[in-house]
Structure formats: structure tokens, C-alpha cells
Amino acid sequence: MAATPKPLADQVIVLTGASSGIGLATARMAAEQGARVVLVARDDASLREIVRTITAAGGTADCYAADVTDAGAVRAAAAHAKQRFGRIDTWVNAAGSAIYGKLAGLPLDEHRALFDTNYFGVVNGCQAAIPYLRDSGGTLITIGSIASDLPSPIMGAYAASKHAIKAYVEALRIELAADDVPITVTLVKPSGIDTPIGQHAVNHEAGEAQIPPPVYAPEVVARTILFCATHPHRDITVGGAGRAQALFAAHFPRLFERLAPIAAKSFVDPAKSQPAPANLFASTDTGRVRSGEHPAARQTSTYTNAALHPAITATAAMAAAGIGALLYRRRRRLTPDARTG
User: Fold this and answer.
1) pTM
2) I need a labelling partner for 184 at 20 to 30 A (CA). Which of 6, 29, 256, 293 fits?
3) Is 158 one of the catalytic residues?
């Protein structure tokens, strides 16, 4: 049975993929709220600059340069965190990359490299974290995607890696619980998020890779991750639009299959050129949380807030229903009976 999580200000949090996007947004937010954070990514110089800025703002941070495809390096990162801060309370697997292109012609080396990062990076992170989280009764959080809940043409390889992550995390949760290991295992599934992942992607389509709409701000995911670090949760979708898409695909698969190729046209902007190089094989363009292309990205998700606070949501719904019933009865009493004039 999982232990009760510590308050965020008392936690030591390790994050992979912490040099950009969701990982960086979460590391900064966690440090702002008093957690001690250890950032893990490939580019040591970038990590050290991020740590400097977090420390200058009053936070406590350290870093360790490691490629998540290297199991030994990830284990060393975990050991460094333990040595530096004494324990690990929450581990966040946030490293990831993407490929845009049709599956039939996708180069095999790229496909394998994507799985090495997205899937085996999670496997390596989990195996490195579990010994430490077992000792602390901690939380193991993995960033998946709504792409694990539906097929995605043009992003098929990415979706396949996220399907694999979902299957792995769910089986791992069952196994740890069966062995009475006190670790909370959480899968966070973001919708389209305004990060540089499209700009960092390998893109075989004509134009610049785009974030599948509608797009949410990365801070929406960061808040969700940190909530899960202090409130045990099995899985959560970030963004009601993404949840609606997954439900549509599950309940109307034939219609979804006809519409998906049309929707996939929005995954690439033919008027722009793809930035280079991609980050699939080496770190590039680090230090950015956002893409810079979605100033109107959604800053909150009513669906996600409701899913994270089901008791409050249920109470509010019952209260609204009660008020509605009261107003209806009052209106009935005040309305003259049409039959009596």
C-alpha cells in the first residue's frame, strides 16, 4: 500500500527531460513551491544554467547530465540525487521526442531511436527510481499522451511509443501493488501542449511540425504533475478536448478513421520550414518551455480540475442540482395555473 505523500515543500523530486518543455516547466514550478529538484537531461551546460536561474530565484536545485536511453547513466542520476539530498520522493519521467511521417516509409533507425527515448527511457527511469521510491514510499509519475488512447496518422510512431508506455506503466502498477511495494504509480496523459516538441521533431512531411490542436499551456501539465506528487492518482488526462477525442475514437472508430486523416493536415504548417537539427539523436535548442507559436494556448482545463477533485466536483454538482430544483419549485408556486386564468 502506498504511503501518504509528503507536502511538496518537503519533497525531493527528480525529473528527466528537464531541459525544455513540460519537464522544465515542472522543475521550475516545483522549486518555486519549495521542493528540492534534480534536473536530468543530456546537455550539461544547459542544465547548469537552468539550475543557476532556479537558485538565483530562491529555489534549491541540482542536475545530472544523462541520456535516458542509457540505463547506467539514469541509475547514476538517481544515485546522485540520493547522495545530494538524501532521498527521492517523486520521480517524473518527462523525456520524449517525436517523429512526423507516414509509417510505411519511416526510416527504421529513427523508429528505433524514438522507442529508445520514449519507451525505454521510461523503463530505465522506472527501474532506476524504484529502489529509492520504495524506501521513501514515493510517487512514480510518467508523462504519456492522449496519443496512447487513440491512433494518430502522421504521428503513428509517436502514438505507438505512447501506447507502449501506457501498457508498461499499468502493468508495473499492478505488479508493485501485488508485491506490497509502497509506490504510487501515475500516468499523466497531456493533450496538445505548447512546447517545442514539434520544432524538435524529425519531420518527413512538407512544412513545420505543429502541436495537434487544441493547444494547452505547459503549466497546466506542470500543475497536474505536482498535484499528483502530493495526491495519489492512477492516471489523468490533461485537457478536456483530448479526453473528448479519445472517447470519440473509442466509441465511433470507423468515423474516427475517416476523419483522422483530415484532422492530421493540421499537424503540419506548409507555410513554414522545419527547424533543424532535430533532437532525436542529440540534444538541441534547450532551455525553452514553449514553442512561441501559441500565445493563446489554454491556461486551464475545467475537465482536468474536475477529475483531480472529484469530491469537490460532485458536491458542487449536487449543490447546483439542489439550487436548480429549489428555483424550479419556487417558480411553479409563483406561476398562476393556466386553467384558472
Assistant:
1) 0.90
2) 29
3) yes
